[in-house]
C-alpha cells in the first residue's frame, strides 16, 4: 500500500510560499496522497549523497524534495524550495537510521564536511575538548553514529556545539546537549531514550538499512498522511506545525499513557509548554473521561488564546466538547455564583473603589500605622494565601518572603485592620477576586463529587494558593488528576506557592523542557542575561532553585538592539522610525508589540506613534482587536508572542520602579518581568531608554 508521509521540515518551507505556489504544491502532492501519480516524475539526482532522494517539479521555479525509501511504495515529502536550492539541498542530505534509537535521521552531510576542518583547527589549538570525558563506547551507546565521532571529538566548547547542533540529526544533537549540560551518560540515556521510548522499544529488532520502517517509528520527523483531505487539513495551517510535530521530549510528556498523580512540566519561555498542555488536554479528552477535562490558565485573555489554539489542534467536536477552557478566576466565579444562587444571595465583585474605601475605613478606625497597599498585600499574600480565619492563626503564621518582620503588637494591629476591611466588604456582600477563589475552594472541597476528571493548568507559576486549593478540590486525587505547566523564571506576581505545601506532590513526575521554539538564540541569550546568577524558587516545593541550564534555540537572527535617548520625545521618535522600518520590511502591524512598565508610559507611546501616523491598538483597552501595532504594559505581554517587540522606557527609576526599594524578592520579580517581556519576541527585540539605562539590562556584546 503506497504511503505518503510529511516531514516536519516541510511545513515551515510551505508556509513561506505564495498562495498560487501553495495550491500547486497541494495539487502535486495530493496525487501522492491519492496514489494517482500519472504525469508526475520523480527525478533522481547525480552526485547525491543519498540515492534515495528525488526531486519533483512543482512549477517553473519550485521543486519538491522527496525521500523514496527502497522498500515499498512509500514517499516522504521533505521540503519545497526554489529550483537551484532544491537541487543543492537534495544533493547534500543524507538519511540514516540511528543504531541506538531506531529513528530516522537526516543530516546536511555537505555542510558538516565543510565545517569539520574548521572544528579540527580550533580543536588543535584548544586546551580542552567538550566531550573528552566520554569514551567512544559511551557516545556510541548513546546513539552517536560512528562516522560522526571524529567531528564530535573536535567540539571544544558549548559555542562550537551550538554552531554544529543545527546540522546534526536531532537525536544526536539532543544527546550532545544533554552531556554538555552536565548530565552523566546514564542520565543522558534516561533523558533522551525516554523521548524516543516507542522507537527504542522497537529498535532492538531494527534494520538500520530499513529507512521505511524507521520513518514510521519517527513521529517527530514525519507523519503519515491518510489522503488528500488530511493533507489539506495539515497544509491549511502551515504556521502551526506544533499541531502535528512535537519534539520527542514534548511528545513523551503530552502523550504519556498515564501519570500516577500530579505531573509538572517546566521550561523557560517559548519551550512549548502551552503546546504540550494543549496536546495533553486533547489526549486526556480522547479517552472519553466520565467528567470533563479542565484546561485553565491565569487570565481570561490567556484562556481565550488557549481555546483558539485548541480549536486549531483538534477538529473532533466530541473531544472539543469534553474540554472546558476557562481562566482560573472564571472557574472560581462559576463555583462561587452557583453556591450563592443556591442560597438566594445577591452579591457583587468589589471594585477598586470599594476596596480602597474599606481600607480607609479600617485605618480610620484603628489608626494602624500601615499603608493601605501594605494591608491589601498582607491580606492577599498571607491571610488569603494561608486561608487564615482567626487572629490567633495570623499571630502564629509564617510570613516568610514578605520582607520586613512584624512584632506581635504590629500583627495584632494588622489583623484588626484586615478584619474591619473584610467585614465592611462582607456587609455589602462585595467580594474581591481572591476572596471568591478562596471561598470557591471551600465550597468545592465541601462537595462530595469532583467537578472534573482531569485538569491541565498553564502558567502555573503565577497562580495564588487559593486558586490551587480550588483546582485541587475540583479534581479527585489520583492518576492523571493535575497536569501543570509553568516557568518559575516568569513569576511576575507575588503568588509564590509551593505545590508541596498545598498538598500537590509532583516528585518523580516533574520534567523540564529546554529547547526554545519561539525566539532566536540571540534573543534567548540576551534574555537569559537578565536572570544570570539569579536563583528562582522552583514550583514543586518553593525551596530548591530552578535553572536555565540547557536553555537554547536552533533559530538565529539579529542581536537585540538597545537605543539610548536623551529624553522621551527623542526616544519615541526613534521608536516610530523603528516600527516604520519593520512595517516596510513586511512585518504585519499586528505582529509588532510595544510595551512599557506602566499604563501611563504605554499611553504616552501610543500617542507619539499616532502623531507619527501609525495605527495602534492598545491590548488593555480594545483587546488588541483593532488594526495596528499592539501596545500594552509588560505584565500584559505574559503568554503572548510577536514577530517584533519594542520595550520602551527601560530605564533607571522605571525598571525597577523607584518605589520598590531594595527588597530582593521585588527586584527578582522585576527581572522576571523583563525576562518575560524580552522573550515574547520571535525575530527582533528592540529596547530603548531615556537617560540612564535600567540596571537590570545585561550588557550587549557588539
Ligand atoms: N514542536 C513544535 N513545533 C513547532 N513550533 C513549536 C513547537 N513547540 C512550540 N512551538 C512554538 O513555539 C512557540 C512557543 O510555544 P509555547 O507558547 O507553547 O511556549 P511556552 O513554553 O508556553 O512559552 P511561554 O512560557 O513563554 O509562554 C509558539 O509559537 C509555538 O507554536
UniProtKB/TrEMBL annotation:
One of its GO terms (biological process) is recombinational repair. Gene3D superfamilies: P-loop containing nucleotide triphosphate hydrolases. This is DNA 3'-5' helicase. It comes from Actinocrinis puniceicyclus. GO terms for molecular function: 3'-5' DNA helicase activity; ATP binding; DNA binding; hydrolase activity. PANTHER family: DNA 3'-5' HELICASE, UVRD / RECB / PCRA DNA HELICASE FAMILY MEMBER. Residues 246-520 form the UvrD-like helicase ATP-binding domain. The lineage of its organism: Bacteria, Bacillati, Actinomycetota, Actinomycetes, Catenulisporales. PROSITE patterns: UVRD_HELICASE_ATP_BIND. SUPFAM superfamilies: P-loop containing nucleoside triphosphate hydrolases.
Amino acid at each position: 500500500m503506497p504511503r505518503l508521509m510529511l516531514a516536519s521540515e516541510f511545513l515551515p518551507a510551505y508556509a513561506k510560499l505564495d498562495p498560487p505556489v501553495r495550491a500547486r504544491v497541494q495539487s502535486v502532492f495530493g496525487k501522492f496522497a491519492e496514489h494517482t501519480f500519472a504525469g508526475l516524475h520523480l527525478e533522481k539526482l547525480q552526485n547525491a549523497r543519498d540515492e534515495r532522494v528525488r526531486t519533483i517539479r512543482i512549477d517553473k521555479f519550485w521543486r519538491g524534495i522527496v525521500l523514496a525509501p527502497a522498500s515499498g511504495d512509500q514517499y516522504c515529502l521533505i521540503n519545497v524550495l526554489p529550483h537551484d536550492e532544491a537541487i543543492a539541498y537534495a544533493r547534500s542530505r543524507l538519511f540514516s537510521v540511528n543504531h541506538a534509537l531506531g529513528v530516522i535521521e537526516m543530516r546536511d552531510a555537505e555542510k558538516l564536511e565543510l565545517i569539520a576542518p574548521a572544528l579540527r583547527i580550533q580543536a588543535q589549538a584548544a586546551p580542552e575538548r567538550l566531550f573528552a570525558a566520554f569514551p567512544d563506547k559511551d557516545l556510541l551507546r548513546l546513539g552517536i553514529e560512528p562516522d560522526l565521532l571524529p567531528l564530535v571529538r573536535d567540539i571544544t566548547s558549548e559555542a562550537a556545539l551550538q554552531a554544529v547542533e543545527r546540522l546534526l540529526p536531532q537525536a544526536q544533537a539532543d544527546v550532545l546537549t544533554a552531556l554538555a549540560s552536565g548530565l552523566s551518560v546514564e542520565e543522558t540515556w534516561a533523558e533522551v531514550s525516554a523521548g524516543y521510548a516507542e522507537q527504542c522499544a522497537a529498535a532492538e529488532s531494527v534494520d538500520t538499512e530499513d529507512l521505511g520502517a524507521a520513518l514510521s517509528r519517527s513521529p517527530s520527523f514525519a507523519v503519515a498522511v491518510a489522503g488528500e483531505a488530511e493533507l489539506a487539513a495539515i497544509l491549511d495551517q502551515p504556521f502551526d506545525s506544533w499541531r502535528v510535530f512535537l519534539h520527542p521530549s514534548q511528545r513523551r510528556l503530552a502523550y504519556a499513557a498515564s501519570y500516577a498523580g500530579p505531573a509538572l512540566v517546566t521550561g523557560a519561555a517559548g519551550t512549548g509548554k502551552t503546546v504540550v498542555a494543549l496536546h495533553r488536554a486533547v489526549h486526556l479528552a480522547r479517552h472519553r473521561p466520565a467528567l470533563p477535562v479542565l484546561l485553565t490558565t491565569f487570565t481570561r485573555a490567556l484562556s481565550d488564546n488557549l481555546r483558539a489554539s485548541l480549536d486549531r489542534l483538534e477538529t473532533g467536536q466530541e473531544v472539543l466538547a469534553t474540554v472546558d477552557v476557562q481562566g482560573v478566576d472564571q472557574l472560581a466565579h462559576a463555583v462561587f455564583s452557583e453556591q450563592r444562587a443556591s442560597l438566594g444571595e445577591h452579591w457583587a465583585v468589589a471594585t477598586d473603589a470599594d476596596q480602597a474605601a474599606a481600607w480607609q475605613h479600617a485605618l480610620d478606625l484603628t489608626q494602624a500605622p500601615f499603608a493601605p497597599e501594605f494591608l491589601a498585600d498582607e491580606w492577599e499574600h498571607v491571610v488569603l494565601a494561608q486561608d487564615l480565619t482567626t487572629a490567633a492563626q495570623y499571630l502564629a503564621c509564617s510570613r516568610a518572603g514578605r520582607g520586613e518582620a512584624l512584632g506581635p503588637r504590629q500583627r495584632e494591629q494588622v489583623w484588626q485592620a484586615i478584619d474591619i476591611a473584610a467585614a465592611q466588604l462582607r456587609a455589602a456582600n462585595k467580594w474581591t477576586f481572591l476572596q471568591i477563589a478562596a471561598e470557591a475552594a471551600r465550597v468545592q472541597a465541601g462537595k462530595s463529587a469532583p467537578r472534573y476528571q482531569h485538569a491541565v493548568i498553564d502558567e502555573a507559576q503565577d497562580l495564588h494558593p487559593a486558586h490551587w486549593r480550588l483546582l485541587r478540590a475540583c479534581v479527585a486525587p489520583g492518576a492523571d488528576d493535575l497536569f501543570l505547566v509553568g516557568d518559575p523564571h516568569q513569576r511576575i506576581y507575588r503568588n509564590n506557592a509551593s505545590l508541596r505545601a498545598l498538598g500537590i506532590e509532583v516528585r518523580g513526575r516533574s520534567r523540564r523542557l529546554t529547547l526554545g521554539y519561539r525566539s532566536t538564540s540571540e534573543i534567548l541569550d540576551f534574555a537569559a542575561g537578565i536572570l544570570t546568577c539569579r536563583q528562582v524558587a522552583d514550583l514543586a516545593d518553593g525551596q530548591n532553585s530552578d535553572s536555565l541550564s540547557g536553555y537554547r534555540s536552533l533559530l538565529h537572527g539579529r542581536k537585540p538592539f538597545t537605543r539610548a535617548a536623551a529624553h522621551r520625545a527623542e526616544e519615541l521618535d526613534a521608536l516610530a522610525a523603528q516600527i516604520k522600518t519593520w512595517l516596510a520590511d513586511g512585518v504585519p502591524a499586528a505582529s509588532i508589540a510595544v510595551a512599557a512598565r506602566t499604563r501611563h508610559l504605554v499611553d504616552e507611546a501610543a500617542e507619539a506613534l499616532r502623531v507619527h501616523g501609525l495605527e495602534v491598538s492598545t491590548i488593555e483597552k480594545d483587546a488588541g482587536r483593532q488594526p495596528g501595532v499592539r501596545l500594552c504594559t509588560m505584565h500584559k505581554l505574559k503568554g503572548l508572542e510577536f514577530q517584533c517587540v519594542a520595550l520602551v522606557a527601560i530605564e533607571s527609576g522605571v525598571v525597577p520602579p523607584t518605589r520598590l526599594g531594595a527588597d530582593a524578592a521585588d527586584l527578582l520579580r522585576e527581572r522576571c518581568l523583563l525576562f518575560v517581556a524580552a522573550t515574547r519576541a520571535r525575530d527582533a527585540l528592540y529596547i530603548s531608554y531615556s537617560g540612564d539605562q535600567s540596571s537590570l539590562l545585561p550588557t550587549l556584546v557588539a
